[in-house]
Specification:
Shape of chain A: globular
Helix content of chain A: over 70%
Oligomer: heterodimer
Number of helices of chain B: 5
Number of strands of chain A: 0
Structural class of chain A: mainly alpha
Number of helices of chain A: 7
Radius of gyration of chain B: 27 Å
Order of helices and strands of chain B: HHHHHEEEEEEEEEEEE
Distance between the termini of chain B: 71 Å
Number of domains of chain A: 1
Largest sheet of chain A: none
Order of helices and strands of chain A: HHHHHHH
Strand order of the largest sheet of chain B: 1-2-5-4-3-12
Distance between the termini of chain A: 17 Å
Number of strands of chain B: 12
Strand content of chain B: 15-25%
Radius of gyration of chain A: 16 Å
Largest sheet of chain B: 6 strands, antiparallel, barrel
Shape of chain B: globular
Structural class of chain B: alpha+beta
Helix content of chain B: 25-40%
Largest interface: A-B, 56 and 53 residues
């Protein structure tokens, strides 16, 4: 019994570690030409874990990491928490089908998830005050989709080799 | 059961296994969870929209996130240290000599400034006007933290622990950089004057013409949208802070007016200016505290403070 608990918390620890690494990537200083393309790593990692181990990574974890991302990136509190929990809800609803999809189809799904999250952020920003946004606001959606296969492979390696 | 699941890779895991896990999962359903999460997020958003910028929740969460900012900054900080370490003796000596000369020049200028300041205080006392003394500064260093490129907000390594407060002016050696936009215990965020949501009250140094300089979203340009087309302003004019609005102390250089063509057929002139501060290159910034206590009107400083304190 104790062993299983130990294993459980070890696994969760690794999941949290990948999420923290995603948060670091999120604020990595990049040259200005590249900075616009920096995708929403935290959401991508959350999507992976929600599809892979939906019984452990759920809406509340997404909400918590969303809130941390809010503080990290200096947004209004609750903005990312809202977007992430909605996206992860969809992932949880569809995870059985999505796990069987080929990477390309998953890519389409991830694209729509990222777009939804970005739309929600835009919506909240607009509620705050009518915002004038640059076209580069939408670039992370594209780059995130491009990064998905690589991230999927990496996290799958972590997932399988560490037996989370 | 659980062990067998863990050994199978993701795509081959039995669907029943996770279904059973979900079936026996305790706690509310995911619909309920989503509802709770959305309501909580909305409450936070509304509270933030109405309340102060930095609340208790943000401060406590920042104890988890601020170390990440320092972690991300580590490589560039180390690179800078390495460069310092391998700096040659000759170049250090050269730099030292140069700095010494510069300091000498500044010192003499300061001597004159002190006399001028005294004179100014005396004159203002004659005019029955109070005068704000100089400011106190603290050097803060930029943290190399990646932010969204369409906002000109930077993170510095001094926070409320050092007494940094909201709307505090931030300068560098050449001019005004911006103002503190959000404070956390260990870091704070500074909005640069070139941010699209930033405006700074300025005046033309040559003739005292007052206007407002708005950020353009580009590091090398400010916009002066509120000047009539016949305003007395020329290319090359220095814009300094006017002190109106109360955020920025008066008299610091902000920008130099660019070349422009006058368009007499339009009601407002389209004029841009280049900030004097090196906004995209500086690593050291100065946080400024204005001394609130005004100089007393009488020559005797032991007198009680002046009741007509300007609130600006």
């Amino acid at each position: 019994m104790n062993d299983r608990y130990h294993e459980h918390y070890c696994g969760i620890g690794r999941v949290v570690l990948t999420l923290v690494m995603a948060m670091v990537l999120r604020i990595l200083p990049l040259p200005p030409q590249l900075a616009a393309y920096n995708p929403d790593w935290v959401l991508l990692v959350l999507i992976y874990w929600a599809l892979a181990i939906p019984e452990r990574v759920g809406i509340f974890s997404a909400w918590t990491f969303g809130l941390l991302t809010d503080v990290l990136t200096g947004r209004m509190l609750g903005q990312y928490a809202l977007a992430y929990s909605l996206v992860i809800y969809i992932c949880l609803k569809l995870h059985k089908r999505l796990r069987r999809f080929p990477l390309l189809q998953q890519g389409v799904f991830v694209f729509s998830c990222l777009l939804l999250s970005q739309l929600l952020l835009f919506f909240v920003k607009n509620l705050q005050h009518p915002a004038q946004l640059h076209g580069t606001f939408w670039l992370p959606v594209l780059s995130g989709t491009v990064c998905w296969p690589v991230l999927h492979t990496l996290l799958r390696f972590v997932h399988v080799s560490k037996r989370i | 059961m659980a062990v067998s699941l863990k050994k199978t890779p993701l795509h081959e895991s039995k669907p029943e296994a996770s279904a059973i896990k979900l079936l026996f999962a305790t706690g509310p359903s995911i619909n309920t969870r989503l509802l709770v999460a959305v309501i909580a997020a909305t409450v936070l958003l509304v509270a933030e929209h109405r309340g102060p910028q930095s609340g208790l929740l943000r401060t406590s969460l920042s104890f988890f996130t601020d170390p990440l900012k320092y972690l991300v900054d580590l490589p560039s900080g180390l690179a800078k240290q390495a460069v310092d370490f391998f700096d040659s003796y000759a170049s250090l000596k050269r730099e030292n000599k140069q700095l010494r000369e510069e300091q000498l020049v500044r010192q003499t200028q300061l001597l004159k400034l002190e006399a001028l300041e005294k004179e100014n205080i005396r004159l203002r006392a004659l005019l029955e006007n109070s005068f704000k003394l100089g400011e106190q500064v603290l050097v803060a260093e930029l943290l190399a933290v990646g932010r969204v490129p369409y906002e000109h907000i930077v993170v510095v390594n001094k926070g409320t622990r050092f007494g940094v407060h909201l709307r505090q002016p931030v300068l560098d050696a050449n001019g005004v950089v911006g103002q503190v936009f959000r404070t956390l215990p260990m870091t704070s965020e500074v909005m640069l004057i070139t941010d699209q949501n930033h405006a700074i009250p300025v005046q033309v140094n040559r003739n005292g013409l007052l206007t407002i300089a708005v950020g353009s979203g580009q590091f090398n340009s400010l916009v002066l949208p509120y000047l009539p087309s016949n305003a007395d302003i020329r290319p090359g004019d220095l814009l300094i802070t006017s002190g109106l609005g109360g955020t920025f102390p008066q008299g610091y250089p902000v920008a130099v007016v660019d070349d422009f063509n006058s368009q007499p057929n339009k009601p407002f002139a389209t004029i841009t200016a280049t900030p004097t501060a090196r906004l995209d290159r500086n690593r050291e910034l100065m946080m400024v505290w204005s001394k609130a206590a005004p100089v007393p009107l009488t020559a005797n400083p032991a007198d009680e403070p002046n009741p007509v304190t300007p609130n600006e």
